[in-house]
Amino acid sequence: MNVPLLDLVAQYRAIKHEVLPALQAVVESQQFIMGPAVAQLEAAVAQLSHARHGIACASGTDALLLPLKALDLRPGDEVITTPFTFFATAGAIHNAGGAPVFVEIEPDTLNLDPRAVEAAVTPRTRAILPVHLYGQMAALERLIAIANRGGRGIRVIEDAAQAIGARRSIDGEWRMAGELGWVTGYSFFPSKNLGAWGDGGMIVTSDDRVADRLRKLRLHGGGKQYHHDEVGTNSRLDTLQAAVLLAKLPHLADWSARRREHAAYYSAALAGVPQVKPPVVAPGNEHIFHQYTLRVERRDELQAHLKAKGIGCAVYYPVPLHLQECFRHLRYQQGRFPESERAALEVISLPVYPELSREQLDYVLDAIRGFYR
Ligand SMILES: *Cc1c(COP(=O)(O)O)cnc(C)c1O
């Protein structure tokens, strides 16, 4: 049997009769730039996020970079984030002119540890940038409380690239990813839970002023045509991509539910394997399992074993960002964040895409059990 890490062809086959006509309509209209599908998608994703504004842009990376630019960071201004994330999170901070300040993660959820964040706040802290890793929200309400304490005016920017549609129960109410942060960035990279047929991203916010500013920043800082208030960039979402995403969006809740079912099936079956720790879902969180990520003993050997059996798996992420060559100037030493460094040695992500069959899940489980037997 062959179980790829992700099978986008299976998804394509199931929905092509919905997506292709939508694409054809864009082609017939020849409105490739900022056609009506873009505004429709912005409204739909804002609504899903319980936010007032959606601002589509060219990538998930830009969905972080543009809000960070809107902070007008000065040299030495600090943005607190996790070292255990995809590179873009910290790269965006650097490219916006800020200094990434890494802090430790929680050992169970692998999300930013609020106590570590509190300890890292300085007078130069301008923002906290939590990542909702693998599709599970960080302890956002605690991070927001830290940001607001004593009128500090620190902004919270959610990196929800992996967490569209995730939610968290806070004081007995469901809060969506993208609802409580000042600004939130999504990615529509093809492998994300809501994936385009190319690059794409979206920013959501309920702050009217920053929404206006972000709309300008993505179009060369212009308001009135050929009049520029500031220097922005070209970071639009293609109408074709918006049409693909609009056609896919009605399926998202069902796809995430399927991922949750697969995750529950894996976790129940692996409970009896002592060398394996299934992912921990924090109380109150509804995980969307962008990745189903275990912590395991002999990780690299297990990965080779699974690959030999035709099972796709991957390590997200093998090198924590504080140890990346490009951030050497930040002077973090090995050993500085033991939980992040341990996670980088122990994690492995298994196939969890919605179209997986029970037989495929069983095949993966048998391979893992067989390895540790
Ligand atoms: C995918 C991803 C991004 C960047 O998104 P792109 O669309 O690839 O630019 C940023 N942060 C995290 C956590 C991601 O997983």
Proportion in helices: 25-40%
Any idea of the CATH class of the largest domain?
Answer: Alpha Beta
Q: Please, what is the average pLDDT?
A: 97
Strand content range = 5-15%
Largest sheet report: 7 strands, mixed
DSSP helical segment count: 12
Distinct ligands, ions and cofactors found in the model: pyridoxal-5'-phosphate
Here the CATH topology of the largest domain equals: Aspartate Aminotransferase, domain 2
Structural class: alpha/beta
Number of strands: 13
Using the alpha-carbon principal axes, give the shape.
globular
Q: Give the helices and strands as they follow along the chain.
A: HHEHEHEHEHEEEEEHHHEEEHHEH
Which strand order spans the largest sheet, edge to edge or round the barrel?
A: 1-9-8-5-4-2-3
Low-confidence stretches: none
- Architecture of the largest domain, CATH level 2? 3-Layer(aba) Sandwich
Please state the CA-atom Rg, rounded to the nearest Å: 21 Å
Q: Tally the structural domains.
A: 2
